[in-house]
Amino acid sequence: MTPEIRRLTYADLPQVIAIERRAFPAPWSLAMFVLELSKPSGICLAAHDGDRIVGYLICSRYDTVWHVMNVAIEPALQGNGIGTALLEHLLAETAPTDRFTLEVRQSNAPAIRLYERLGFRAAGLRRRYYQDNGEDALIMWRTPATLQGRLDDIPAAGPVPLSQ
Fold first, then answer.
1. Which of 42, 128, 132, 139 could form a disulfide with 124 if both were Cys (CB 3.0 to 4.6 A apart)?
2. Residue-wise pLDDT tens digits, 111-156
3. pTM for this one?
4. What CATH number does the domain located at 96-164 have?
């Protein structure tokens, strides 16, 4: 499936909230989405198939770093390239030297593989990051150095322990 990618709008939020609740055990609230959409420096994207939203991405800019805050795909459509399309669109809208970071559940192997394919590398751990079950988050970065297989331009990068 090759979805069309466009800017996420407030009118999309009912569909986004529905996907969020199906995709995550600790979903974002409507207020969290409204806050992110209201930030002028952010990039919020929707993947759609006709009138139906099938995935979305929320990315905020903080100083010199982009933070990928939320990527969700309709659970029945995961693994069909929608997440790749959203992330590639984000990367195309930003400068080649821009720096990105994100957190991902250590248990989310498909997402980690996707991020790695796009140049993200694990550079740390946030202990007990996820409130629903206390799972650790892998901190991943995409920078000019990670695209060359290095971590030397990431603040406080260190070895990442394997999940237990």
1. 139
2. 999 999 999 999 999 898 887 888 899 999 999 999 998 888 987 7
3. 0.92
4. 3.40.630.30
The single residue of 4, 103, 129, 135 carrying the catalytic annotation is 103
Q: Is there a shared CATH topology between the 1-94 domain and the 96-164 domain?
A: yes
* Residue 36: active-site member: no
Choose the catalytic residue: 20, 36, 74, 115. 115
Q: Which fold has domain 1-94?
A: Aminopeptidase (3.40.630)
- Decide if 115 is catalytic: yes
Confidence (pLDDT) at 164 = 43
Please, which pLDDT band fits residue 9 given cuts at 50, 70 and 90? very high
Compute the average pLDDT of residues 81-100: 96
**What DSSP string describes the chain?**
---EEEE--GGGHHHHHHHHHHH-SSPPPHHHHHHHHH-TT-EEEEEEETTEEEEEEEEEEETTEEEEEEEEE-GGGTTSSHHHHHHHHHHHHS-TT-EEEEEEETT-HHHHHHHHHTT-EEEEEETT--TTT---EEEEEE-TTGGGT--TTSTT----PPP-
